[in-house]
UniProtKB/TrEMBL annotation:
Pfam families: Thaumatin. Gene3D superfamilies: Thaumatin (2.60.110.10). The gene is LOC105033141. Residues 1-22 form the signal peptide. PANTHER family: OS03G0233200 PROTEIN. Keywords: Disulfide bond, Signal. It comes from Elaeis guineensis var. tenera. Disulfide bonds join C31-C231, C76-C86, C91-C96, C152-C203, C160-C170, C174-C183, C184-C190. Coiled coil: none annotated. SMART domains: THN. This is Thaumatin-like protein 1. InterPro entries: Osmotin/thaumatin-like_sf (IPR037176), Thaumatin (IPR001938). Belongs to the thaumatin family.
């Protein structure tokens, strides 16, 4: 017996999800220095890898993964058990299972997201400077089904306002000042600030503050693969 229309609609997002394939992210270090790449999501999944100049790390991420990110760490030192610290982007160990500490340039993504009737099986991607900036980044799709390329390659550290300057990067104002104006707590209607405009002017496609969705979120069909390049 064929399923009823209501049951088909009810399970349609689930079917889209199960038919989707894991996404691959090729993470490439083109910086003249070593970085320690990392990825993590809110489900305590993640990992990390030392990348010398020219090296690539391929990350496979399960379909349906939401609220995940990839970033570069700098100035790291780890012991034989993979425990240690980094100057920027630190998560406390080589293989991260939680987000890193600011400042860190972020490649953020949510895979195979569904909200019928508005969208089904879409990936959402962005570069975010909400946690500051440590390494220039290019985040692009590599599948024929989608053509997206987000960049933040300006000299943010060199032009960083003195009050945001920290060792190895340009920090975000929420971390520095810890006020609602800059941190935009849930339910607030915060506006752009002098600091967010600084980041936006240098990297127009990147998130400059938490409510910067309109100009900073991009989509691809679910099942797209991606490439994240440090110092493109």
């Amino acid at each position: 017996m064929a399923p009823s229309t209501s049951l088909t609609l009810l399970f349609f997002p689930f079917l889209l999800l199960t038919l989707s394939h894991a996404a691959t992210f090729d993470v490439v270090n083109q910086c003249s220095y070593t970085v320690w790449a990392a990825w993590a999501d809110l489900g305590n999944n993640g990992g990390g890898q030392q990348l010398n100049q020219g090296q690539t790390w391929t990350v496979t991420v399960n379909p349906g993964t939401a609220a995940a990110r990839i970033w570069a760490r700098t100035g790291c030192s780890f012991d034989a058990n993979g425990n240690g610290h980094c100057q920027t982007g630190d998560c406390g160990k080589l293989a991260c299972t939680s987000y890193g500490s600011p400042p860190n340039t972020l490649a953020e993504f949510a895979l195979n997201q569904n909200a019928p009737p508005y969208y089904t099986n879409l990936d959402f991607i962005d570069i975010s400077l909400v946690q500051g900036f440590n390494v220039p980044m290019d985040f692009r799709s590599t599948s024929a089904s989608c053509s997206q390329d987000i960049q933040c390659t300006a000299d943010v550290v060199g032009q960083c306002p003195s009050e945001l300057k920290v060792s190895g990067g340009c920090d975000d104002p929420c971390t520095i000042f810890k006020t609602a104006q800059y941190c935009c707590p849930n339910g607030s209607s915060c506006e752009p600030t002098t600091y967010s405009k600084f980041f936006k002017n240098l990297c127009p496609k990147a998130y400059s503050y938490p409510k910067d969705d309109a100009t900073s979120t991009f989509t691809c069909p679910g099942g797209t693969n991606y490439k994240v390049t440090f110092c493109p």
